Amino acid sequence: MRSLPTGGTVETRGSRRRALQSRPGAAMLRTVRPAPCRAALPARFEPQLAALVKTAPEGDAWLHEMKFDGYRIGCRIDGADVRLLTRSGQDWTAKLPEVAAAARRLRVRTALLDGEVAVVRPDGRTSFQALQQVFGGGPRAGLVYFVFDLLHRDGEDLTPRPLEERKRRLVAVVRRGGRAGVIRVADHVVGEGGRVFAEACRLGFEGIVSKRRADPYVPGRHGSWLKVKCVQRQEFVIGGFTDPEGSRAGIGALLVGVHDASRRLVFAGKVGTGFTQRVALDLRARLEALERRTSPFATPVEPRLARVAHWVAPRLVAEVAFTEWTADGRIRHPSFQGLRADKPATDVVAERPGPATSSRPAGGRRREKT
Fold first, then answer.
1. What is the CATH superfamily name and number for domain 21-230?
2. How far apart are CA 293 and CA 296, in angstroms?
3. 343 carries an active-site annotation
4. Choosing from 67, 227, 229, 270, which is the catalytic residue?
5. So what's the architecture of 233-347 in CATH?
6. Beta bridge pairs of residue 51
């Protein structure tokens, strides 16, 4: 495999560029032409989500995209009225004025796009920490809205259409931005999931998202979209913190947890790295405003930590990278990546990879309930 650039089409070793029309299953996509589904522009953004698995699926029923390190955003366009919505329904239009301005220039009357806002570093990778700095008033260079799906356009509901058709129509909407615009189409490669994933990890990306080429768009998490991560990484609820030691300022470590099947907040470990001094001081100020006398965790915290902990109301969500889960439900070698403002603390659970998914013919899956 040659390379896996952010937002670029990938070619596998020894193969030509894969045109969508030439792939198996494309004939079905050309011949099955349901009548347009007329519908009003949705008021809400209800995203389809990817299920975490251990290995990437193989076979030409799947296409694979880069997993961007940013915030999932739906772009709702209704004439000059553009709204940028998080997956929890928050309106972030004011936070992303350059994206909103670019969306107003698209040649559509009404549309709903699905994508991810991220900051592209000089090496082509995306950085969640750099995006946090943007929202904190830092430089905005490299801010990009990568779009990968089109759910509605000019009075037509596109969610029942096959993914590849939606992507082709998305390209037609965004083509003016090219590869240098604020809004860019996230390209993909068809088939060879294992090799695409290996290349993504070699180049230092977070992972890949694999999607069934012929499936409709169905909100929620099910087997049609899958994600495979090069490193373990997910959200955790902050339930406490410790004081800094030595020359450190702000905080020593965060005490974090996840909700179990009974919706209890269970302790998952402490996170003591990944903070700059500025971030640590900001976290201290935020957490002190949430302090409480008792632990929010339903499971015990080690006595040595509990004796020095400052407990807080479990409202803030942290993104944490780590190497693995231990048998007793703790995370190893964790590193703080940033706060997540787009996900309620009550929705945070442990992400455990499911089994590998076998390949099925394109269009062969039954639409699942969510």
1. DNA ligase/mRNA capping enzyme (3.30.470.30)
2. 9
3. no
4. 67
5. Beta Barrel (2.40)
6. 226
